[in-house]
Amino acid sequence: MNYINPARQAPVTTADKVFETMQHEIVEGQILAGSKISEPELAKKYQVSRSTLREALNRLEKCHLIERKPNVGSRVVECTVKGLLEIYIVREALEGMACRLAATAMAGTEIAELQAILTIHGEEKQLQDGVAYYQEEGDLDFHYRVIQGSNNLQLINILCGELYHLVRMYRCQFGMNSPRATRAYDEHKAILQAIADRDGELAEMLMRRHIAASRKNIERKLEKDSE
Amino acid sequence: MNYINPARQAPVTTADKVFETMQHEIVEGQILAGSKISEPELAKKYQVSRSTLREALNRLEKCHLIERKPNVGSRVVECTVKGLLEIYIVREALEGMACRLAATAMAGTEIAELQAILTIHGEEKQLQDGVAYYQEEGDLDFHYRVIQGSNNLQLINILCGELYHLVRMYRCQFGMNSPRATRAYDEHKAILQAIADRDGELAEMLMRRHIAASRKNIERKLEKDSE
DNA sequence: TTACGACAAATTGTCGACACATTGACTTTA
DNA sequence: TAAAGTCAATGTGTCGACAATTTGTCGTAA
Prior knowledge:
Largest interface: A-B, 30 and 30 residues
Largest sheet of chain A: 3 strands, antiparallel
Helix content of chain A: over 70%
Low-confidence stretches of chain A: none
Distance between the termini of chain A: 35 Å
Oligomer: homodimer
Mean pLDDT of chain A: 87
């Protein structure tokens, strides 16, 4: 499957390619979460030297997909419930702010474009009545565009560059296909309306509630599973 | 000068030491902002191989202190006004959230400890009537402890690990010794009171206003300079 | 004179080998 | 038997050298 990758530039160097490959394998769980990474082993697997592999590992660490300890080695991060909720907290804060900024920074054409995309998503949702597509690609795409609309490079870099793949990893590995799609779609519409009205304060509040609702939904679901 | 470094672990490997050295030199401006980094040159300067230096560069990139382009090289980030304001925006969002969390997550003992520290800062401030110390170390220390109090590892990592040194760099290079210290001190006290009252909502609002006030102060100052 | 292209110098990316630290198993000793 | 110490094996950190790419210079042609 060919994922979109917001902040990516074409993989020019060998380390880039190894990085992308490993990224996909970690996100999709082919390299197991929590597992130890053996540099010699993976270097042989990808047919590159250890230096090149280590370069790739450095970028994976930048994406928070692996953790390194000096003189010990690297491990793939573990997908814990605590970690998932922590990311939602960070997203609530940052994407809320991004939304506030987008309300004043986004161009009218961008807003119109995003409205068109939302309409398409809505039709497709009803068409196939399948939640998966919307929840996966569509949701990410909406959030991605709002973040870009903030026009704040630090914000964009953190959300689209450093946290993006970790979010995808959690989505993949926890198998998130909750029945929140319809409600989420309506919330997206309301958020976009606030942006179109140039009401930054409201836009931020709605985005924060939107993300907080997802978080609480997960909390409920998980504590129900543990009963 | 020996800076405190929140999220640091003792430098065990040589790359660690080179990283810390370069970090200080970049933050304090000895390595000029915006300047190009020559790997062979710096490797010779620090008496290490290029591999080790590149390892250090990778960590500097993680702190947003340098930027790399494939097949071209690394540059120290530039300190622009736009960049400074962008960081304040990110801090407003993240530290605001951290403060909200701290209001429920911080232990009573931690709060008491922080209150004691604030008192000391207040006395020292009046004692030497110098703004510099408080503004530099004390302010960073207060914010640092609140962030730690959030008990959210993602939040702590981003603020204390990735953005911390960039903030210090801006403070150093823009020479921030504004007369906001007294007001900032009072604001800190109010924030801490909200945390002690376990009022997360208020704590977040106060922290956001506190950081936003600093940002607006800088905006005023800078547009006054440009007149 | 300007624009284009080839060449040379310098820099970055990649490689394989060595030095060092950690881990686990085994031996020794209380 | 248990605890501590030793040693080997594995893996990470570091090094120097080679390969590939970029950049600036020079020369040629329009």
